[in-house]
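Quick one:
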Amino acid sequence: MDISDMKRYAYALPSELIRKEGVEPRDSARLFVYDTRTDTVTFDTFANVVKYLPERSLLVLNDTKVLPARLWLKKETGGKIEVFVLANQIEDAHRIPVLVDRKVSIGQQLFFPSGEYFEVVGQEENIFFVKLHTDDGLTLEHLLDVFGETPLPHYLEGAETEETTLRKRYQTIFAATGASVAAPTASLHFTERVFQSLGQKRIETAQLTLNVGLGTFAPLRQESFETGRLHTEYVVVSETTADRINAAKDEGRGIVAVGTTTARTLESVISDGSVRPYAGKTDIFIYPPYAFQVVDYLITNFHLPETSLMLLVDAFLEHKGAKRRIMDLYAIAIENKFAFYSFGDSMLIL
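Output:
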């Protein structure tokens, strides 16, 4: 497979199927269930997702937290500048990677309304590196919380949602740690009611972290197919989570990955048949054909055309021996007016 094959993953989506705001309650989103064993499609609502999950399966979720990473600062001249903090890529507190919307130079200072400032200390292609200067010991996360705005994908721009509402709605109810610049959207449908219903089928949960970056929206390049590597993201799988997954596998219980970020993480930390505790980077690129070693079932949203996310889902369908592939399922979803993308509806692949 190479970049030319991506044309097979192009599709036309009516604009009315791009939902601009999350539905309330969250679990009232529609659910598209595809059973690969029987080749049957069922429509329901996400509130009933537990009805379709195998008994005693283990549900694995990404507990990453979306940071309000978009800032409007001022140059020394008083001119306004948009700064997008690539929070998921921070490795050195003195070299914070950012994107800017206008020209800056090394040594330039970019000021917060409260007087703290970024000093531009480096550049690599279109990414600049800044150092935070503050007299009060304030952290970057605090300043983002006070002055930042929630980053939204381009297809959601123009949505008239207040920042206070958006921060809550573009965040999973179990977000706990990490530094993502985009939400793990398959998890946005979960509510306390759904979690409570898991007990009916003795379904346990485990959590891991993948800090979602802008690479999730980036167009694919031929280089990725040649190297077998994709954009890098930081992941954490604790010893507790690894033990739960390994125990479930040993007992023949299915592993349900909630979202492509969870699936990517799980397939990155398998070694000699066991999931290993891990904290570090992953650049795994999953595309057809691919033999999944951990994930047995997948909950996912409907993704942008010609993206790595579509390839992962299609690879999973092929791995499951499905009679229908992702473009077949998307055609059904479009015909039946399912909502797509970040605030869209959900799909369960069994």
